[in-house]
Specification:
single chain, 340 residues, alpha+beta, Arc Repressor Mutant, subunit A, five-stranded mixed beta sheet
Amino acid sequence: MIDTQRLPEPRPFVRATALAPVLRHFHDRQAEFTGLLTGHGVDPGRVRDLYEEIPLASYFEVFEAAARLARDPVLGARLGLEISPADLGPTGLLLMQSSTIRRGLGRFQETLAALQTATDMTLSDDGVRLSLSYQIASRAVVPGAQDAEFSLSCVCRLIRLGFDRRWRPEEVHFSHPSSRRPDLLERLFAAPVRFGQGANRIVFGPEGLDTPHRTEDAGLIAVIERHVADLIRAREPELSLAERVRTIVDRDLGSRPVTLSGVAAALGLAPRSLQRHLAAEDTSLREIVRAERRRIGEQQLARPDVRLKSVAASLGYADETVLWRAWKDWTGAPPSRGRG
């Protein structure tokens, strides 16, 4: 049973180990990077303890500033392909100990909260394709493109290190607008990259997901999982039910139907119970879907190169006509008025 009473949300954080690749990158420019950390409210001394909690908002700001300092628009994706499993703490180590890619991804998404809070990572299988989505679940922080590209790049790196050096995703999706160098991103991911999507997502091909690559050390995995559980239990940040529903809606829009029963099942609630709890927070699933479609649509339509057909598909609409009617209902104007 989910307790929907709103409690003060602990400050979202990421452990300092996530900054290790950035620190290594600026090894020869330590004075500049120290100034960058200080300028964004991060004590340089704290990042030496890899388990130290860094405010998530500050981490995003530092990563974006680091990309500007390096003059590299794809710094996050580049650094993700250089990590070691230990850079992601026990979460990364669990993936590497797993026998198959599918099992490793499942453990990774289940234990991410030990590394970073206020974050949703979900493994979805619609019977046609598998996808791993990554989203910031709290509206209290503004996610950054560098972090999103770094996070998905890290997953690709771990799969190549632990399972198949030639592996490549089927597609990579990002919720942010197009990078200044999408060609570099496609080269780094070795896959087509799409922007302005409902969630940051890796789409997997069906081959090799369940191929055994090692015999698991059950004892070692149990020790790591116990450590992860202790880390998560120590904080357990709690989002409101409406915020968790928004995260699920963002994740599923354009990739699967968003239904009351489906969202309720993802939260472990009965559909009527979900309706009651959302009503207690003065909202409903319909209102959340409407708001998220409009928010994502506005972001996409601000780009003049995006086709209405692509926007409609990413919002879960059958065609441009349905999008046109919905947009006219929301704004009183056709979608063309929202173009950049």
